Amino acid sequence: MKAKKVVTAFVILSFLAVLTVVLCCSKSSDTVKIGVFLPMTGGVASYGQMEWAGIMTANEIKPTVLGKKVELILVDEKSDKIEAANAVSRLIKKEKVVAIIGTATSGNTMAGASIAEEAKVPIISPTATDPRVTQNRKYIFRVCFIDPFQGSVAAKYAFENLKARRAALLIDQAQDYCVDLANFFKQDFVRMGGSIVSSTFCQSGDQDFTAQLSAIKASKPDILYLPNYYTEDALVCKQAAELGLKFPILSADGAQAPELISIGGTSVEGFIFTGHFAKEGATTALAKQYIQSYESKNKTDASGFDALGADAYFVLVDAIERAKSTEGPKIREALASTKDFAGVSGVLNIGEDGNAKKGMVMLHVKEGKFRYLTTINP
Amino acid sequence: MGAISESPLPFIFQDRIIDTAAFTQQLINGVSLGCLYGLIAIGYTMVYGILRLINFAHGDVMMVGCYFAFYGMLLFTLPWWASFLVAILLTALLGVLIDRGAYRPVRNAPRISALITAIGVSFLLENLGLVLFGGRPKAFYRPEIFSGIHTFGEVRVLDLHVWTALLTLLIFTFIYQIIYKTRIGRAMRCIAHDMETTRLMGVDLNRIIAFTFAIGSAAAAAGGIMWAMRYPQINPLMGILPGLKAFVAAVLGGIGNVSGAMLGGLLLGLIEILLVAARPDLAGYRDALAFGILILILLFRPTGLMGERLPE
User: Fold this and answer.
1) Which residue in B12, B150, B152, B229 has the most chain A C-beta atoms within 10 A of its own C-beta, making it the best mutation to test that interface?
2) pLDDT for B140-164, tens place per residue?
3) What are chain A's domains?
4) Which end of chain A is more exposed for a tag (fewer CB within 10 A), N or C?
């Protein structure tokens, strides 16, 4: 009886083994595997879902590389640093991808970076803006600007355009991005002659900000700089309106998600932020093709995160094409010499440091919609 | 954390004078948050009082309640009050079903099994929520009647603050009356005291326990809906933190004691808000503070502020 069970189990196992071998070998020969890790669920799920929609649109526009079909493998990093590291490791070790796109946030990209670095598999992030993401790393790239630029543009806008002299900060201290960005803003704002009248903190996932906002109100600032992600931003604006805060709120690229408006409602009217892309400011031919294809498929306006997802894909596929190879080190060399690439979000250059040099847009919320204000070039 | 490698963000101390208006505002903020914690804590404490089970799925039950209300308004275009009522009833039913499906089968198993089952139910609800409702947050509708704002000088009171306090008082009184003034309440207290003897006295344990879950879950749904109106954003993981905070509140007040849960909730809300008011630079550590309180209470007064000495 026992022997029979063992034999049955053995037969089933060997059958499965053969099946796996057949399945994976039949696939891997005629496709190029690109891994994608994004937050499809959790606190910043909107970023992941928008970027994924952008990547898929880009994949439809350009489905092949080196004469082979591109196979995208998506792993959800659940807006969590540990899951992000696991996702990268799974993509490299199990799925054997040639390169990786991801992820939306800086801290989580860094969580996966060292694994990719060691395996010599390039990662290209759509929207990790913290300068430390690519520092001292050879295989990590991005298609977005970095935060010192973003912080200084915001400080300049606050000081010159809004004539603010007293700024308050409300910083999500669980995110490297928010802490660093606040620092860059502060450096420039203080250097220009402004002062920071209150620095308060919160944590990703917080929902009650009344205490911080009441304290900020008491410090009588001219402006609130809020370099956090959209969920917190929306709730902060809502509660700020309820508490009768009258000064403008200035934020950064993390704000550009439709939830900011659906949750924030009328309280986000006049909300200003620095961002990656606004379709009214689009100039390249690829952008026009992308916007049309994205909007007909997704029935929603193309915006920053999906456009950057698409750019990460286009830049990576272009690099593989130029490298004429799917080996990590060769793709890396090609990525590091990306020159005048006319992407969806504008023309960009990537150098040895892994950072993209490109312009930035200012947006604001008006009549329940994100509206383009201006483009600022570095 | 650590900003730009070596230079951490310096804390900024400004000599702020907390005037009366600002302080009153913070008190209102604190009481309002405390009421929400209290409402959710009631469900925790009732189930614990009877079964000695920490129902870790409680926060997620609250989340499901919010989604019931959300979809009631969106898909079935119910008026808000009908949608809220239906959501509360459905959540009560969900509580009963969870008890029937997950906790009753392990009723006589060691307590740790039930605890692990509770964690399992919690994960199940969260992930089911992710699959069914999607991971992106949804905006929750706040009816007109709750949207008004009253201004007294510098102090602002939302209609929602007033309603939250009133409804919390109402629900609390209702549950208190059930537990201390009705036959079924007496049975609940008996089970809490000695389950076996109560069974021998001919009380239908399962029915009473199911009823407890129904009431606890309904209170969670009511708290959740008010939470969602206050912070109008719902997502499948929204129950985790309020659930944990309510647990702290329940332990602070003395777990197993309904008045204690309410008191614990109010205290926790006030402590959290007043910490941030006094030291805005430490605001990021308010969750750490809440869980620090939990540890201190468990170390020095495990039965909480109003808890009775446990029979064992």
Assistant:
1) B12
2) 988 888 888 888 888 889 899 999 9
3) 26-145+282-358 (3.40.50.2300), 148-275 (3.40.50.2300)
4) N
